[in-house]
Amino acid sequence: MIHSSKLHIRKPAVAGQFYPGDRSTLTHMLDEFFVSVEKSYIEIDDHISGLIAPHAGYVYSGKQAAKAYQNLKNKTYQCVCIISPSHREYFSAISVYPGEGYQTPLGICPVDKTARQLALECKGIISSIEGHRAEHALEVQLPFVQYLLGNIPILPLVMGDQGEKSIEEAGECVRRLYETYGKDILFIASSDLSHFHDSHTAKKIDGEFISLLEKVDMEIILEKLRENDLEACGAGPIIAILQGLDIKSKNIRVLGYTHSGDVSNDHDSVVGYTSALILKNSKE
CA geometry: angle at 97 spanning 95 and 182, to 5°? Predict the structure, then answer.
């Protein structure tokens, strides 16, 4: 059961599949991830306004995600806005969850009602269960958020369409949220990279995506996505956040690259992962 009609809490859909379904095992796995990536921590002076993180099963992409999330240690925010692609449903809008919260084995993150109302004032944003029923890409980010920030209020957004119009609308929503919350809101773009190429091809395709990401060359990324020369299932969320925050190349810190073959040892068909920090001073 995904949605409770009594409390309108979105129950975990992929706990026990993409990540452990019980609190102690999940916490232990997260403990191990953060210990394993401690050496990759980077000192930064600028404020972290956003993250890009993968959303595969934790055994495959959890360490890469942890490279970004570890930088939230000792940070405080009032709200976390997670923007996810929709893998299971297509709808021509961006949906914000209409219920009261999202639940994982680590507890319930309430939906920030003020942020939701602000989002609903933006063009293209609707209040709907569409995209939230069984979507994993948003859900798998939450245990990382809860591990470091507790059961913080969230704004869960799912892009049912990632056309340029929807990206522009999502970006405008990000801009308005940032105008209101400033450094008190964290944005998370949930995305994997290329899918089901051999590892050599995947590294080439994903390397080009990462290079363009570091340059914040969104127009070229969009062009190459249209031509199927690049792949990123959450390209819409990534571009929307970068555009909405008016991010320049100096404000992106890519934190590495891995693919599923690094774990499975199957290099004939892999999925690529990266993670990154999005930096922005509130005065910018």
Answer: 85
In this predicted structure, what is the pLDDT of residue 66?
98
Is the Cβ–Cβ distance between 176 and 122 less than 8 Å? yes
Here the tokens at position 266 are 């199957």
What mean pLDDT is reported for the chain? 94
Q: For residue 16, what are the CA distances in angstroms to 22, 23, 31, 212, 271?
A: 8, 11, 17, 35, 21
Angle between the 164-181 and 113-120 helix axes, to the nearest 10 degrees? Answer: 140
Distances (CA, A) of 56 to 76, 195, 237: 26, 11, 16
Instruction: Give the mean model confidence (pLDDT) for residues 203-229.
Output: 95
What confidence tens digit (pLDDT) does each residue in 117-131 have?
Answer: 999 999 999 999 999
CATH 3.60.15.10 fits 9-279, yes or no: no
Q: With 70 as the cut, is the pLDDT of residue 243 above it?
A: yes
| Residue tagged 């709808």 (tokens) | 91
The pLDDT value given to residue 5: 42
